[in-house]
Amino acid sequence: MAFINFFKNVWFKRLVSILCWSYGALIIWISYLSVFYRVDYVNKVGFIVLNSVVSLVALLLMIYTRKQVITGILSMFMPLFAFPMVLMNYRQLPLIIPIMLVVLTMFFVGRAKETLKTIVGTLYLLLYIVGILGYLLVINLFLAKD
């Protein structure tokens, strides 16, 4: 019984919620590296498994702490953090898919009201569509091969 009460403790949930920001920092770090470097896989299967396991653990921890304010803030900003990663690695699906599943799931499961989710989700959707189209247009215009 004390074991179950330990997991229901609000301070434990807040600690786990702060720990969830490490996944947000990982997304920011991958986005930063995506802007300046190209992804090459040494062991593609190993990377897929590791990325999927880390993303699944982060998703479970975030769902566990979804009612905490800290996780709610993270879940609203994660699509913005992941935008450069998606933009620069649109052909690297093993990198993008597990992370974007966590980002989208937490955006919709998060604590925010439905009105805020609708407004911010619309802005993110426009950002992604216009950003990706603009990026592809610039790449095709200025880096066209002879």
Task: Name the features.
146 residues; mainly alpha
The secondary-structure class comes to mainly alpha
The radius of gyration over CA amounts to 17 Å
Outline type: globular
Give me the number of helical elements.
Answer: 6
State mean pLDDT (0 to 100 scale): 92
Strand count, sense and closure of the main sheet?
Answer: none
Element-by-element helix/strand order:
HHHHHH
Distance between the termini: 71 Å
Proportion in helices: over 70%
Q: Ranges with pLDDT <50 over ≥5 residues?
A: none
Number of strands: 0
> How would you describe the oligomerization state of the chains in this entry?
single chain
- Beta-strand content estimate: under 5%
Structural commentary:
With 146 residues, this protein is mainly alpha-helical. It is 83% helix and 0% strand. The chain is built from six helices and no strands. It has helices spanning 2-8, 10-36, 44-64, 69-88, 93-109, 114-142. Helix 3 packs parallel to helix 5 (93-109) and helix 4 (69-88) packs antiparallel against helix 5 (93-109). It is globular, with a radius of gyration of 17 Å. The model has no long low-confidence stretch (mean pLDDT 92).
Topology:
Layout: H1 2-8, H2 10-36, H3 44-64, H4 69-88, H5 93-109, H6 114-142
Report a brief summary of the structure:
The protein has 146 residues and is mainly alpha-helical.
